[in-house]
Design goal:
19 helices, alpha/beta, 6-stranded mixed beta sheet, ABC transporter transmembrane region fold, 4-stranded antiparallel beta sheet, 612 residues, Rossmann fold, 3 domains, elongated, binds magnesium ion, binds adenosine-5'-triphosphate, disordered C terminus
């Protein structure tokens, strides 16, 4: 009990309406565990009654047994005491078990619900929220709850009952001695209020230092390659030890806060006992109270100081748990922007993809990323999107697959507005291969299966063979069962792209939206990726954000995107003949190819009709 029990900063403190809504929601979420909670409270009350029964039995033993010399009364009291102690042991265990069971079940439900919400959130949500903050919600905020759940609740319920019942017992035993005991109470209350404030401040300080320390540690580990490359190890160690020293100091400060308080509480306890013995002895001589009553009083009081201390800490724990819950409920309340409408319809198997007068701006951005864009991709057509960086190519690609909804205008497939389509048919018919494909920790096969979890090994094999990458993956020691590690760090950039393409091949969609990776590959791998792409593009509509000339040359039509608008649209030869943006772009590309002397592209690209 020497640690600080959580805390909140001023801005985290809940107002009364927030407290009410947090309580109401927690209560409704805890309803399934009501039985467990009730059982727990039952055992808490049994425990408290046992604690109170002890001193009363001592009183009986003294007044009825020892004083008059009545052995059987004394024996009776002793046996009862033993029985009560055994019951107390059982009830203590049971209350702990059931309270934790209820608390942990609550946390489990909360965690799953929050995660469920996060996983269903739209892309725009993640543009707004930082991943780090969301992870903190799931770890630190749930941790704050866990603290309350694991011991706070037990203490709160237990201490509350104990204090309330003990006051009644004391008053019944002797109102005079109760008044004497209450003399110490003001000291305790004042000290507790001060402690609660100080410990909250100390806790917040420790929390902040821990945060700084953690981020310094994390930065050091994730950036270790750069640190070593520039020989900045000593500098990093110095920074880390500095944040550690600060953390140590703030921990020590919090320990000091605890020591004066607990010291004082202990002193108050002894002072109260001394007063009771003194005044009680005097009252015994005057036959106002019995000797047993005085002893019972001293014993009972000793049992009361713990609950007072615990309740004083609990205020902080409750506050921080309330603040955490409020934030978590905030996540639960956020509706995903991209969701299926009630009477959604399936997308047809073939059709045109039409972008009709679409404008779009990212949340918080003050300018349009797309500005009244219209374009039609016919069935089986390949459209390449080219243009300078930041022009809006990826944005347009994402809207075509409904990763975002347009701010204005609509995207149709086969005449159906994507907003009216069922999510399953949408993800089945239109597949995006993003600029940087994300690989999960697991095997290559697991990663490909993300696209279609029920795919058989043979399906995967067929898809890979079709793309011509089967042999490449089979060359790994474990073949498709090779572990790719976090983010696929054991695979090369090219291999990661091949995995991403294999995923799309497995789904076999009507429309493929490809955001070509900007990273450069070695010539051999690049040819392999291109060959796989060629196969993948066959027999379907393709929209490809192209960063390579070779990709552009494979397209039927090209849309030049600049500053959120389509400024040129047409076949390669037409656009070159126009001598506009596209002509300039191709000339630049060609120059960079000739100057780097890796002339893998046909030199006569501007006028040739090869390569397709
Ligand atoms: N998630 C986002 N939140 C806010 N703004 C964004 C977001 N993604 C892109 N933008 C902005 O929207 C504009 C278009 O970005 P987009 O990613 O579509 O460009 P791009 O043409 O794909 O560029 P590149 O060739 O570099 O991939 C840019 O100004 C960019 O800064
Ligand atoms: Mg892009």
């Amino acid at each position: 009990m020497w640690s600080l029990g959580g805390g909140v900063s001023e801005e985290e403190k809940l107002n009364r309406t927030q407290v009410r809504s947090v309580l109401r929601r927690s209560w409704s979420m805890a309803r399934p565990f009501k039985k467990t909670i009730n059982t727990a409270i039952f055992f808490v009350i049994i425990s408290v009654l046992c604690v109170l029964a002890g001193p009363i039995l001592v009183r009986v033993g003294i007044d009825k047994g020892i004083e008059p010399g009545n052995t059987s009364a004394l024996n009776f009291a002793v046996v009862c005491y033993v029985v009560v102690t055994i019951i107390a042991y059982g009830a203590g265990r049971a209350q702990y078990m059931y309270l934790n069971k209820a608390g942990e079940s609550f946390l489990r439900v909360l965690r799953i619900r929050v995660f469920d919400r996060l996983i269903h959130q739209s892309m725009s949500y993640y543009d707004r929220e930082k991943a780090g903050v969301l992870v903190a919600r799931m770890t630190a905020d749930i941790e704050a709850m866990a603290e309350l759940v694991q011991w706070g609740l037990l203490q709160f319920v237990g201490s509350f009952f104990l204090l309330a019942l003990a006051m009644v017992v004391l008053a019944v035993l002797s109102w005079q001695l109760t008044l004497v005991a209450l003399i110490v109470l003001p000291i305790l209350v004042v000290a507790s209020v001060k402690f609660q404030r100080d410990s909250n401040r100390a806790y917040l300080d420790v929390r902040e230092r821990v945060g700084v320390n953690m981020s310094s540690l994390q930065e050091g580990i994730t950036g270790v390659r750069v640190i070593q490359a520039y020989a900045r190890e000593e500098e990093q160690i110095r920074r880390f030890s500095e944040s550690n020293r600060a953390l140590y100091r703030s921990h020590m400060k919090s320990v000091r806060v605890s020591t004066w308080y607990f010291g004082l509480v202990e002193f108050a306890g002894i002072a109260a006992a001394a007063l009771i013995v003194g005044v009680g002895g005097w009252l015994v001589h005057r036959d106002v109270v019995s000797l047993g009553t005085v002893v019972a009083f001293v014993l009972l009081l000793a049992n009361l100081f713990d609950p007072v201390q615990q309740l004083s800490q609990l205020y902080n724990t409750l506050q921080s748990a309330g603040a955490a819950l409020l934030k978590l409920y905030g996540i639960l309340d956020s509706e995903p922007e991209i969701h299926e409408v009630p009477e959604a319809q399936s997308l047809p198997h073939v059709g045109e993809l039409e972008v009709r007068d679409v404008s779009f701006s990212y949340v918080g951005a003050d300018r349009l990323a797309l500005d009244h864009v219209s374009v039609v991709v016919h069935h089986g057509e390949r459209l390449a999107l080219v243009g300078p960086t930041g022009a809006g190519k990826s944005t347009l690609a994402k809207l075509m697959a409904r990763l975002y909804d347009p701010t204005d205008g609509s995207v149709f497939f086969g005449g159906v507005d994507l907003r009216q389509a069922t999510m399953s048919s949408l993800r089945r018919q239109i597949v995006v291969v993003p600029q940087e494909g994300f690989l999960f920790d697991g095997t290559i096969a697991d990663n490909i299966r993300i696209a279609q979890p029920d795919a058989a090994d043979d399906d995967i094999r067929a898809a890979l063979q079709q793309l011509g990458v089967w042999d490449r993956f089979m060359a790994f020691p474990d073949g498709l069962h090779m572990q790719v590690r976090e983010r696929g760090s054991r695979l090369s950039a090219g291999e990661r792209q091949l995995v991403a393409l294999s995923r799309a091949a497995l789904v076999d969609p009507a429309v493929l939206v490809l955001d070509e990776a900007t990273s450069n590959l070695d010539p051999g791998t690049e040819r392999e990726v291109e060959a796989a792409l060629d196969v993948l593009m066959r027999g379907r509509s393709v929209v490809v954000v192209a960063h390579r000339l070779s990709t552009v040359r494979r397209a039927d039509r090209i849309a030049v995107v600049d500053d959120g608008k389509i400024v040129e649209l047409g076949a390669h030869d037409e656009l070159v003949a126009q001598g506009g943006h596209y002509f300039e772009l191709v000339t630049n590309w060609q120059q960079s190819i000739t100057t780097t002397a890796v002339s893998r592209e046909p030199q006569n690209i501007l006028h040739g009709d090869d390569g397709k």
